[in-house]
Amino acid sequence: WWSDSAQPVRMEAVAAAAVALGDLDDGEAAAVIGILEQERLRRQRQHRPQRLDNPPRLDTSKLSDKKFRKLFRFRRRHINRLRQALQIPNRVVTKNGSLFSGEQALLILLRRLAYPGRLVELSQFFGISEPELSMIFNRTVDMLHQRWGYLLDRLDSPWLTRARLDSFCRAINRAGAPYQNVWGFLDGTINRVCRPIRNQRLLFSGHKRVHCLKYQAIITPCGLIANLFGPMEGRRHDMAMLEESGLVHAMQQHMTQPGQADYVVYADQGYALHRFIQTPYRGNNLPPNQAAFNTVMSSLRVAVEWGFGRVDSLFAFCAFKKNLKVLLSPVGKYYRIAVLLTNCHSCLRRNQVCRKFRVRPPRLETYLH
């Protein structure tokens, strides 16, 4: 007749009923209420997860190499090199004055993005309070985005040289493309988010039937995402993203060759044919040569889907929509940092795209220049 969720009011009602029936006097009823309250608290303590007030700090030296790579997505020997290349300082201070080492800040960022775990679980894992974990995570995200965000915005990044563009064109042509001046593949993707409490129509994609943010990216034959625009509202079309991104204007500035064919990207049928954007032939009853062209280019263009899938695979936090609340967190910035870290991962370890096209990614220090 008694449950763990019973409230003190219920206890008093039971005791009052016993007094009314003459089974207990007032003193005995008060004693019964006290006993029942103690029993309720005891049962709550039994079923409540044990939390340490001062849990021990994480000692990564006790983790095996395989476990370390699974938790943080990078090998142990690459962490210090990654921290130095990202120019994360030796000491990182949050807004409330909490002090963390640069390596600790990087590990918290990687662990948080690697899998959609709760802060209470990460608190026990790192031995750091939940508010401090949240602050150092967002501080590191802001720091990296401010320092390296341009690598995802511009087409004149130091690593994207003319010699490397020529090598990309040769690799795509060697893989079977009839073009000799295609250096990358353009496409858009959605990132599902939690349904907001207001302005829901802005984020709702009628095509995908989900609430989401949209991004536009160019992936190169080495597996790196050379350009990322977004986020934009989920209701916008790919062509609207292209216009808002200013990508065509940027390609006019940086992808022209005097006396030679311009560098171009290949996109799907969602984009219009343009001087710098090549698309498949449209129609149902195409001639055999056009159908064969579409088949070959489709088999190559799938590389951009591999690139998006790699981001979600490495940093699944960005693929779990219940964690992505656009009115509470900088969701777009999280995804952009996940793309940046995925590029860094590709520089350190080869990926599916670079194996297909047989193009080696740049060194980490070359990319983060």
Strand content: 5-15%
End-to-end C-alpha gap: 69 Å
Portion of residues in helices? 40-55%
If you average the pLDDT, what whole number results?
A: 89
Class from secondary-structure proportions: alpha/beta
Number of helices: 16
The main sheet comes to: 6 strands, mixed
Q: Secondary-structure element sequence?
A: HHHHEEHHHHHEHEEEHHEEHHHH
List the helices and strands and how they pair.
Blueprint: H1 8-20, H2 26-47, H3 65-72, H4 76-85, E1 91-93, E2 99-101, H5 102-114, H6 119-126, H7 130-148, H8 150-153, H9 162-174, E3 182-192, H10 200-203, E4 204-205, E5 210-219, E6 225-233, H11 238-245, H12 247-254, E7 264-266, E8 277-278, H13 288-314, H14 331-348, H15 352-357, H16 364-367
Parallel strand pairs: 3-7, 7-8
Antiparallel strand pairs: 1-2, 3-5, 4-5, 5-6
Helix pairs in contact: 1-2, 5-7, 7-14
